[in-house]
Amino acid sequence: MAKINDWLTEDGLIQIQGWARDGLSIEEIAHNIGVSPSTFYEWKKKKVEIREAIKKGAAPADVIVENALYRRATGYKTIERKKIKLPDGTTRVEVIEKEVPPDTTAGIFWLANRKPDRWKRKQVNEIRLEEIEDETREDIEKFIQEAKDKHEADKSKTQHADGDDSGEAEA
Q1: pTM for this one?
Q2: 38: Cα within 13 Å, side-chain hemisphere
């Protein structure tokens, strides 16, 4: 079984950093080291050097993925080279510029994570007791029913917007 001090060497930390840069999960890094994921999580908690190696390694990979997601969300142009064999046996390279259109799903994902207050689909409705403590029981029940009705109406709109418009009434 591996010991933590074996991995606190310069070479050990560089190896951990490289695995993180390659996109390996904590579980996969633990497997490569030869310890259980729970042991490796404990090592991470105890040793700042291990946390820093993972952080430094993961940073470039995260930037690459962020850039790819952004390009996918906004669309981009790419150059494609294709070898074409001619009848006389020679080949030529044909260069084609292709346009990859923006991907709506990638855009929604980007916005939901970058601006969650505006783009998360799930909305949280809070009722604060201090705001309604002076109300009568009837008024509170009416308030709750109105909130439920609004929620159902919003849910219905979302289903129709998502293409769930079968035209059948619910029983």
Answers
A1: 0.47
A2: 0
